[in-house]
Specification:
The structure is a single chain. The chain is α/β, with parallel strands linked by helices. The chain has one domain: Rossmann fold. Helices cover 31% and strands 31% of the residues. The strands form 2 sheets. The protein has a 5-stranded parallel β-sheet with strand order 3-2-4-5-6, sandwiched between helices. It is globular, with a radius of gyration of 16 Å. The N and C termini lie close together (6 Å).
């Protein structure tokens, strides 16, 4: 299956502005940053979580801990994806028990990644609550999961794919929409 890029939805500046807005919403909803932990879902959620932490440091003068979570072994489609799954790092700088955990990911689609992340976090401890922040919500939920913080809502068709590109992994920042081309 080949993907054809159709359009850029967000450029670097739009992504930066969205993250600033999300950071302010996090402070407002949590009435500050006490006991807040950002947990980026491996891969692109982690650099986004780090950026949110930097924005919060600059605006609120608070160091918010940032964890990295690999959910590979918690996926419900693990056997469909690979016989030899590639497991990435999970690093949690603090115990999540009694914390306000904010899961950060690039795209919210079916909700299955977030469901897997919820299982992984709860295996680590019992947070006070778990919230979800995403750069893009594209709809098409298969599970009753929603984002608390959204950079941009992008209605899509099932033939379309959203790619959030981050400089730390992809060399540049942008969000693009692509379409699956049947061969």
């Amino acid at each position: 299956m080949e993907l054809i890029e159709k359009a850029q939805i967000m450029d670097k500046e739009a992504m930066r502005r969205a993250l600033i807005r999300v950071a302010h919403e996090i402070v407002e909803k949590n009435k500050g940053l006490e006991d807040v932990v950002l947990v980026g879902i491996h891969r692109r959620g982690y650099p986004l979580a780090q950026r949110l932490a930097q924005i919060l440091k600059e605006s609120e003068n608070v160091d918010v801990p940032v964890g990295e979570l690999d959910i590979t072994l918690y996926r419900d489609d693990l056997t469909l994806r690979s016989t030899q799954p590639q497991v990435g790092p999970t690093r949690m700088p603090v115990d999540v028990a009694n914390k306000r955990v904010i899961l950060v990911d690039d795209v919210l689609y079916t909700g299955r990644t977030i469901r897997a992340a919820l299982d992984a976090i709860i295996d680590m401890g019992r947070p006070t609550n778990i919230q979800v922040a995403v750069m893009v919500d594209r709809g098409h939920r298969e599970l009753p999961i929603r984002a608390d913080y959204v950079g941009k809502n992008v209605p899509t068709s099932s033939k379309e794919v959203i790619h959030v590109k981050v400089a730390e992994i992809d060399g540049h920042d942008e969000v693009v929409i692509a379409e699956k081309k049947d061969e």
